[in-house]
C-alpha cells in the first residue's frame, strides 16, 4: 500500500431501496475519500442517507436495498460485489462499525468477555487465553476502570456511556483500518460524550485508524473532524476541510444548518430558519432536492446541479453557491 | 434565602422542594428479606431540597445530565407530581393550600410541553380535538367559538388550520411538536414547562421550534421553565440558568454570567465540554467518571468524587447554595475559602 493511497475511496455510490411504492434513492451518487488517521464527518438530518452510506460500506444492505452503482475501494479492493466469504474477512476486522445504541450491538444474555473473545477468534486463530488478554487491553484502552472484573459483567450491568465504550473496545479488537461511527454519542450526556470523543480522537492519532463519524450534530463534528461531507436527500451537497466549510459555507443548505445551531453570539435572537422539512425520498423529482426550501432557487435549479470545485479542496453541488461571502 | 429585589412576588417560587421515590418490595422480595436476604426497599432522592424563584416573563433554563432530577422538578412545577417536602408558590400563594377551584385555575395556568411528540399526542384523536377539547371543557371558549379559536391557535403555532381534521400520524416530528405547543397554549397559560421539547428534532426543525418559543413568549407574555440537557439550546433561550447535579441545584445565575464565569466546578466542567461550532480540532479533556447512581449518591457534595478541586470538607457535608452577589448562587465550599480570604 503506497503512502498516498486513501484507506477508503467511494466513487459514485448508489444504494437504492426497491420498494413496492417505488425506488427510494437513499444514496444517489456520492463520492468521497478517507485517508489514514483522518476523521471524516458525514453530516445530515434524518433520512438523508448518511447511515445507509455506512451500511453500504459494511456490506450490510438487505433486501429490498441494493447497491446499484459505484465503487467502494477499500485498501485497493472494490467491496461492491465482493463475495460474502471475502466480505466476512473484512467486516469487523478491517472495517468496524459503532452504532448509536450499544444495546443493539451487544448481546444482552452473553457476558462481555464471551462476546469479545468470539469477535477475536472469528478472525484469528488464537487461544482463548490470548484473546482474553487482548479483550482486557482493549477495555483498558477505552478507559474502562478495572477491566479484568468488568470482562465478566453482562451488558445490563454497564451504564450507557460504559456500554458505548465496550462497543468501541469491540470495534478496536482487531485493529481495523477504518471505523465507521454512526451517531455514537447522540444518546449520551455531555460529559460522557466528551470522554468518548476524547477516546476517538486519541485512537485516530495513535493508531492511524481512519474514521467516518456519522452525525446530525455539527458541533461535534466541528471539534473532531478534519474534513466534512454534508448530505442532503441522498447526495453530498458540500464537502471540504472542516474550517473552510464551517467558516465559509458555499451551499445554501450548509449555510442554513450552521445558522440553525444555537451558539454564543446568537443568544436570544431568532435562529436562521430553513423553511419546510426534508422531502420524502420517494417523491424526489429531477433537479436539486433542496430547491423547495432554498431562498436562492430559480429556474436553473430544476436541473440537477453537478459538483463543482470553486476552490481547491472544496466541492459544492449548487447553481447559486454563497461564493460572494468571505 | 435571597432578598426579593422585585416588589411583586415571583410568578413561581419553589421552597425546599424534595421528591423521593420509594421502590417497594414485592411479595417475593418481602419474604426473601424476612429470611435474611440482602434486599431492601430502594429510596431515590430524585430532587433534594431545591429552591428556585422565577419572575414573570423570564425564561429559566434547567440543565443537567440524565438522572439529575430536572424532569422530576419540571413535573412538580407542572403539578403532575406532588413534592415529598417543600412548597410551590404561584404568584405568592402556596399551591397545596389553595381552595379547589383556585387550584384548578392555577393548574390550567401552568402547562407542559413534552419531549417526544410521538408519545405525547393521542394517536386516535384528531388535531382539532387534541387542541380544542381542553379550552371548551374548561369554559375558556364556548363550543360555537371553537372553530375560529382553533384556526387562530394553529396559525400562531405555524400549523395550517386546514389540517385540523387530520390525525397525529399524518404529521412530521416538527409539526407534531407544534401540535403539542398549540395544545398547551389553547388553555391560555401563563407559565410553560418545556421538558426537552426540542431534543428529539432535527437541527433545522429544532431552530424553527426554538424560534417559535421565542416568538410566542413575546406574543402571549409567557414565562418558561426550559428543561434541557443541551447547554447550547439552554444558553440560547434562557435569561437565567440553574444547573442540577444528582437532585440538587449546584449553581444558579443569569445566563451571561454563568457562561462567562462559571463558579461551581461542575458547571465549569460541563460548559467546557459543550461542543461548539467555534471549537475546531478541539483537545477533549473530559472530567473523570460518570454521574453516580442516585440510589447511592456520594456523601457530602455529590460532585466531590469527580471534582478536580475537591478538598477535605467536600466529603463530609453538603455545601449550601449561597448567594454570591447579584443573582448568582452556588453551592461549593471553595467559595467559603475565597470569602474568608477577602473578608
Can you put this structure into words, describing what you see?
The complex is a heterodimer of chains A (326) and B (343). By secondary structure, chain A is of the alpha/beta class. Chain A has helices at residues 50-58, 84-90, 102-105, 112-121, 128-141, 147-150, 160-172, 190-207, 218-224, 242-247, 252-260, and strands spanning 8-19, 22-34, 39-43, 65-74, 77-78, 95-98, 178-182, 210-215, 227-232, 235-241, 315-316. Chain A has one domain (8-94, 174-316): Rossmann fold, CATH 3.40.50.300. Chain A is built from eleven helices and eleven strands. In chain A, the strands form two sheets. In chain A, strands 6-7-8-3-9-10-11 form a seven-stranded mixed β-sheet, sandwiched between helices. Chain A has a four-stranded antiparallel β-sheet with strand order 2-1-4-5. The longest helix of chain A is centred in the middle third of the chain and has 18 residues, at 190-207. In chain B, helix 4 (127-137) crosses helix 5 (146-156). An eight-stranded mixed β-sheet of chain B has the order 6-7-8-3-9-10-12-11, with helices on both faces. In chain B, strand 7 (191-195), helix 7 (203-220) and strand 8 form a beta-alpha-beta unit. The relative contact order of chain B is 0.13. The longest helix of chain B has 18 residues, at 203-220. By secondary structure, chain B is an alpha/beta fold. Chain B is globular, with a radius of gyration of 22 Å. Chain B starts with 11 loop residues before the first strand and ends with a helix. Chain B has a single domain, classed as P-loop containing nucleotide triphosphate hydrolases (Rossmann fold). The chains are: A alpha/beta (326), B alpha/beta (343).
